[in-house]
Amino acid sequence: MPVARDKQQKTVLIMMSNTGGGHKASAEALKQAFEEKYGDKYRVLIVDMWKEHTPHPWSTLPDSYSFLVKHGLLWRMAYTSIQPRVIHVPYFAAMRAFVGRHIAEAFD
After folding, report:
1. CA 35 – CA 29 distance, rounded (Å)
2. Quick one: DSSP state of residue 32?
3. Which backbone phi and psi does 20 adopt, to 5 degrees?
4. Whole-prediction pTM
């Protein structure tokens, strides 16, 4: 739920995906640094773009990625299956068509 703020307070949106590798910890550290340096001058929001702003099944990508990383052979198969340009260009275009407007909502 959005917090009421005055018109002078600016918003900083930190977009991340909780897929491991310290993305969430880095986002939290940035938020803390803003709060320490600027107090309440900025409203800092951390948003997991995949989980919070995409429909199923894309919203499960962070958990799927975490699973794949633990199972190297599966990760390698998933990665190499979309590597040929003839596959990954239409794949990402289709993904953008399905999730683009949902991600844009994060900026409203």
Report:
1. 10
2. H
3. 95, 180
4. 0.70
Give 77-107 pLDDT, tens digit per residue: 888 887 887 888 888 888 888 888 888 887 8
Q: Radius of gyration of the chain from Cα atoms?
A: 17
Distances (CA, A) of 29 to 39, 63, 95: 14, 22, 30
Calculate the alpha carbon distances from 6 to 10, 11, 23, 43, 102 in Å: 9, 11, 30, 10, 27
Show the beta-strand stretches assigned E in the chain: 10-16, 42-48
pLDDT tens figures, 14-45: 999 988 778 999 999 999 999 999 999 999 99
